[in-house]
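Report of the visiting student (M.T.), summer placement. My assignment was to run the structure pipeline on a short list of targets and document each run. The first record concerns Lytic enzyme.
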Amino acid sequence: MSLKPLQIFQKDHCLDPDGVFGPKTINAMRIAFQLTKEQTANFAGQCAHESNYFQRQFENLNYSYERLLQIFSHDFDTDRNRILSEAEKQVARILERKPEQIANFVYANQNGNGDEASGDGWLFRGRGPLQLTGRRNYQLFADAMNDQEIMCNPDLVVTKYYFESALWYFDNNHLWNLAKKTDLTSIKQLTKRINGGYNGLNDRIEKTQTFEGWLNAA
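After the run finished, the structure tokens were exported:
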């Protein structure tokens, strides 16, 4: 049975690869990533929330019809009149519970992706703790890692560059300055930049503050 990214990190840093995120693992992250305690707590707090404690590796696109209309209503509104016709809703019914087709439809012609037939939506679907998504972002990440193999084998974001993809996200979006403190204002600002809103804010606050406690006690 292959190890998950968190277990690989633990093994690489001489920890028990039990896949449980705890004080020893987060302190190893602080040292490995050369971050302050506050930056580490913020980084881990946001990533742990987004990835279910680093267990989620790929974007889950196995959506029901109802969920598709909730999340991607704009994509199904092809005539952009803000009202979904029966024909537009029918597309969602056809795509229901078909992850690859969903990805190719909703991510077509955006973020550097080609059209629906190109398959870019599925090929460059979300991976990593903060869900690296879209051909353009994968190319920028491949350039940053100096590894163009990522473009023909995007699963490397999971198998080789899981945490690096999240670190790159913080770098590329200039988030480290917002992570210098762990007060509520800083956590809210980071959440807004990462999530686009404040979904799961209380959980992000709880995780960040818990992780800071672990780091201070190390």
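The chain has two domains: 5-58+132-217, 65-123. The mean pLDDT is 97. I thank the supervising group for their guidance throughout the placement.
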